[in-house]
Design brief:
3 domains; mainly beta; SH3 type barrels; single chain; 5-stranded antiparallel sheet
Length: 295
């Protein structure tokens, strides 16, 4: 372990002007030297009063380094963020303080150092002339620019989706229905018709699925729904009513016969254009159609 010769401000990078402060260390404080870079040392130190740690830069001359540490140079490799996420002051999402965040499509610099699947990157701080260096999950970086993809029509899968947040397609029963984007089927459901004597107001989507879009998928006009509901299907591809295992109905309803609601947690990955099922007239529906709802 190394010790500090004097109290120092710790910076996000090897400069007092380009990078903001990440914290401070005290004289004689024990630290770990990670590497040397020019006249600076990249160190790790404990955050007082917590179990967390931080990494940052101090002048090498201010540290009594006892470890054998490498000397590195910035490899200055351009990378592109393919999934928005949090950056950290160390190479893990636990045990280190969050440094900030980067967004999908953002250009960053990979310094060339990798720890525990976390890449050490440099990125601009929005609205300022300063930068930060921090650790970011390497799987969220690409070597090629990232472009957003447009959701496709659930019926005419070669066309872009141009509908609203709630769109009904007047199609006959048995029409193939497709995934509008890459993503995950988080649940499948079968909501029964509401009986006429039910005292509860309840709109049923019948048989359908919920699709959570993968990162980077948007509608043609730029909307990014958190999930998409498909309703009133006649059948689901790969699932049948006996497979629905959870009996769900509104709180306070004594007799679920009014609803006959079943939900199956699926968590199945799908690709844009995969067959979901076939349109129908299930649930509370006055005629065959496909219900699409963007949430």
């Amino acid at each position: 372990m190394s010790t500090m010769k004097s109290a120092q401000t710790v910076y996000y990078g090897p400069s007092t002007s380009t990078y903001p402060s990440v914290g401070s260390v005290s004289q004689n404080e024990t630290v770990t030297a990670i590497w040397k870079e020019g006249t600076w040392a990249h160190i790790e130190y404990s955050v007082t009063g917590t179990s967390n740690k931080k990494r940052g830069y101090v002048p090498t001359s201010t540290v009594n380094i006892t470890e054998s540490v490498p000397t590195i140079t910035n490899q200055n490799l351009t990378r592109y963020v393919n999934t928005s996420g949090t950056t950290y002051t160390g190479p893990a999402s636990t045990g280190y303080v969050a440094a900030g965040s980067v967004s999908r499509g953002e250009t960053v610099i990979y310094i060339g150092q990798m720890f525990n699947s976390y890449a050490f990157i440099e990125y601009a701080i929005s609205g300022t002339s300063q930068k930060k260096r921090a650790y970011f999950y390497a799987g969220y970086l690409s070597t090629a620019p990232v472009t957003d993809q447009i959701m496709k029509d659930p019926i005419n899968k070669n066309n872009n989706f141009t509908g609203g947040n709630h769109t009904d397609y007047a199609v006959s029963t048995g029409t193939p229905v497709y995934a509008m984007c890459d993503g995950t089927f988080t649940f499948a459901y079968h909501y029964g018709k509401k009986y006429s004597d039910s005292p509860y107001s309840y709109i049923s989507l019948g048989r359908g699925v919920g699709l959570t879009p993968a990162s980077g998928w948007k509608t043609a006009d730029g909307r990014t729904p958190s999930y998409i509901q498909y309703g009133h299907l006649s059948s689901l591809s790969g699932y049948s009513t006996p497979n629905y295992v959870e009996n769900c109905y509104p709180s306070g309803v004594a007799d679920p016969v009014y609803y006959r609601d079943y939900v199956l947690i699926v968590n199945k990955a799908v690709k844009c254009g995969d067959l979901i099922g076939y349109s129908g007239n299930s649930g509370n529906s006055t005629g065959p159609h496909l219900h699409i709802q963007l949430n």
